Queue: 3 jobs
Job 1
Amino acid sequence: MKEATNKSIVSRWFTEYWGELNPDIVDELATEDIRWYYPLAGEVHGRKAVKERIIGFQEIFPHGRFDITDALIADGDQVVARWEGGGTHTGRRWELPHGVLPASSGEKMHYTGTTVFTVRDGKIAEEHGQTDYLGVMQQLGIIEPSVR
């Protein structure tokens, strides 16, 4: 029963936070001390910082979205989601570790990833994702693909 409830919470989070780019869901579904981590974006703690991440993404990719692609897998407090998504860069300038994407570049990105969520007392306590950020950088023209 716990796993089914946790999967439902993660499904709703993913639909509203990543699918609709809705920062308001953070207050309802995240713990006060939520830990959010993705390699390129870094690690942040707390509701305010997690809201700022999705607002920042929306400013860069206003029509971007991500969707769960496979059945969620749950074991105790952890839920694993496989997903895909992306968008077209029609927003503000984006400064990245290896380059800059000028405002409204029109560059497109599409990629997949896997995220492990930890649910504590009915709320998301941790979102730890892994994805192909090298592929994203290549799609956006920040890093040239290597040729062998």
Job 2
Amino acid sequence: MQWYAIFVEARREDRLKKCIERTCPEDSIKALVPKRKLIERRQGKEYERILTLFPGYVFVRACMDGFDVYYKLSKLPGVISILKDGVYPVDVPEEEMNIILSLTRFGEVIDFSNLYREGDKIKVSSGPLEGLEGIIYKYDHRKKRAKVIINLLDTEKRVDLGANMITREV
């Protein structure tokens, strides 16, 4: 079974995930909509907000050897297309999907990570980014966000993840 990306209408990712779970319970299909928790400021106050990590995408783990599952998924409401190369659906490469699965290992919502500086490098003491220091390229103190690069289907996606910079006690 491989992971595939379904391109959906904006802000309909959760609706499609529920639809997949409702219409395909007998099939061994797993849907994933990764989300992230961020701090946003409005009028001097900080608010926690949960946003979709990749708007417009739902990841599905399924066996699409035949076209039965493909056609079943492509006919669901809100689906624009299942990403494919010509005729056949393209699976998300395992190394790219492993990063997304690692970030969502504590749940579908990617929570805050605790970061600290060690020289010029940013290290992670705890949280979903633990062990993934290589994808962090910057930290924004004001917005409390780690700027990360995630490759998805041979495209570099730059996303913000919630993070706190702490002082590491020696």
Job 3
Amino acid sequence: MTPKYKRILLKLSGESLMGHQGHGIDPERLASYAEQIGAVADSGVEVAIVIGGGNIFRGLSGAAKGFDRVKGDQMGMLATVINSLALSSALETAGHRARVLTSIGMFPIGEHYSPMRAKECLAAGEIVIVAGGTGNPFFTTDTASALRAVELGTEVMLKGTRVDGIYTADPEKDPTATKFDKMTYDEIYNRGLRIMDLTATTLCRENGMKILVFDMDTPGNLERVLGGENIGTLVY
């Protein structure tokens, strides 16, 4: 495979790590992700990753149940660190070098994130997992992904989901929903589509960061995307 991109930011949802368990981390799903990510890293692609924490704790949901919003978001940040450690362990078990950088000081769990340090690790062939969101409450991991993609100068932000792209409506609820192969940022705004929160979408738009939404749960799809196959939906 000749990769279409040299450096990517891969956003994974915490919920996807649950697999069919309904909670926590499914070892089979984790191993599948590690295999896919390791394969593209072996092909020469520099891979940075941001993972959500919704399989463990989601700050906004916690606030709805009475948690203080700031503390709830901080708990969500810690959930992303747990997921990041799990993925780094799975990657290392599969024989790949991975490094966890955290947006808040958490040594020795992970080094403190800086764009310069992350770029050094990427250039050295390490898979870099940036945990802890932006390090601030009221910002989602989608926004953290967009921010890290821009900071690290990636060519594209890949959003791995459980559906194979962006549709006119939720395809799991509306069987008549149709899929887009490509669409502009303006179309997302005008159609009221929430593939990410508006802060993340706006950050990508203002910095010309392409977003490619695809199904990460189908083994091999990450390689297909990087090989240039027309799967998923490209936002530009």
